[in-house]
Amino acid sequence: MSRTNQSSISEFLLLGLSRQPQQQHLLFVLFLSMYLATILGNLLIILAVSTDSCLHTPMYFFLSNLSFVDVCFSSTTIPKMLANHILGTQTISFSGCLTQMYFVFMFVDMDNFLLAVMAYDRFVAVCHPLHYTAKMTHQLCALMVAGLWVVANLNVLLHTLLMARLSFCANNAIPHFFCDVTPLLKLSCSNTHLNEVIILSEGALVMITPFLCILASYMHITCAVLRVPSTKGKWKAFSTCGSHLAVVFLFYGTIIAVYFNPLSSHSAEKDTIATVLYTVVTPMLNPFIYSLRNRSLKGALKKVVGRVVFSV
Question: What's the Cα-to-Cα distance from 219 to each of 26, 121, 245, 247, 286, rounded to whole Å?
Fold first, then answer.
């Protein structure tokens, strides 16, 4: 297939989640509400951590980074979908589609890496408390986050370049609300075997390795908690870990279901629902999950909200 065939499609159509006007209006309100909740919740955490010196610890440093990533993550997909609804258009340029795909999966990778780092941080704090300050220094934490950004960008650059080499000939309708890898591969009239192999090998390694690290960390934490004599202490620890793991399983479960299966086994409707869970629901839940049972963070959040209310 010649390179000129690729240029015959200069834009794609994002069909969204529904073609029925009534459902579209309902989905607009729902997604706008979820987006505002995501932005507000995550920005409050960033403000609380940055303004309260008591929260200048590795755990909250990673949490504020996760909140920043989640704000950016949600902002790569939802505003475009909302704007398309208001303007009555569905188009996105070829370069815009690849750019959106790049940033979506860069932030997916960062969410993935930060969840693993946060689990490791809790493992060191619970299982090796005497060595915690020596192991988790501020310099090491900053270097870890910087390194994760580099790895995430390199990983996504590989997949974006592989996508850019493909040809798109006739059909340009994407049955999705953003430029996702799976529907783009289905639209391509080129051989997508290399893309699929890289996703199932390198992509799986990038996603599954942190997931296994999270599971291993929480297994060690569970063993340590079981040795705690206080029943109340055990229940509090298990309820906290349980809520964290629920978000982890939601995030990884949907990603594995969508991307790490052969293209022939995919359903557009099921894939769209699954991607909503990890692109919209998970970033919205993270602030609530990580602050709900955290007294220090709740105290800092109350101070931030109090300052905002009194300054108005």
Answer: 42, 14, 11, 16, 21
pLDDT per residue as tens digits for the range 159-204? 999 999 998 887 889 988 999 998 899 899 889 999 999 998 988 8
CB 74 within 8 A of CB 32: no
DSSP 275: H
Please tell me the distance from the alpha carbon of residue 150 to that of residue 50, in angstroms, as a whole number. 24
* Chain centre to alpha carbon of residue 72: 9
The answer to whether residues 92 and 80 touch, using CB atoms and an 8 Å cutoff, is yes
**214-262 tens-digit pLDDT:** 999 999 998 888 887 777 767 767 777 777 888 899 899 999 888 887 7
Is 253:112 a contact under the CB 8 Å cutoff?
A: no
Query: Edge-to-edge strands of the sheet including 11-14?
Result: 91-93, 11-14, 173-174
Mean pLDDT of all residues in 268-275: 81
> Residue 210 in contact with residue 116, Cβ under 8 Å?
yes
Distance CA 30, CA 78 (A): 11
DSSP H or E segment with residue 259? helix 231-259
Reading the block at residue 142, the tokens are 């900053």
